[in-house]
Design brief:
about 100 residues; alpha+beta; Alpha-Beta Plaits; 4 strands; about 30% helix; globular
């Protein structure tokens, strides 16, 4: 499944900057950053549950917000990209 994650962490609250860094690090473990607080992830259901649990243990639900958009298997037809930094095919070949 293809998941889009967006989050808004209140950095003015106590520990907010730390939470912001932690959420970003967790998201990087599972996917690709496409904007500051937006990540695209290609995950199996078990990995999605793991990712969601890790993020929800970090955020303060009274101060912060997290959204998980399920784009499904037909995700390529659901994304239009315009502007700088062209699209990233997370399922394409990895060149090192």
């Amino acid at each position: 499944m293809y998941i889009l994650i967006t989050y808004d962490v209140a950095t003015s609250a106590d520990g907010g900057k730390r939470r912001l860094r932690q959420v970003a690090k967790v998201c990087l473990d599972y996917g690709q950053r496409v904007q500051n607080s937006v990540f695209e992830c290609s995950l199996d259901p078990a990995k999605f549950v793991e990712l969601k649990q890790r993020i929800l243990r970090i955020v303060d639900l009274e101060e912060d917000s997290v959204r998980f958009y399920h784009l499904g298997n037909n995700w390529r037809n659901r994304i239009d990209h315009f502007g700088r930094k062209g699209g990233f095919d997370i399922e394409g070949p990895l060149v090192l």
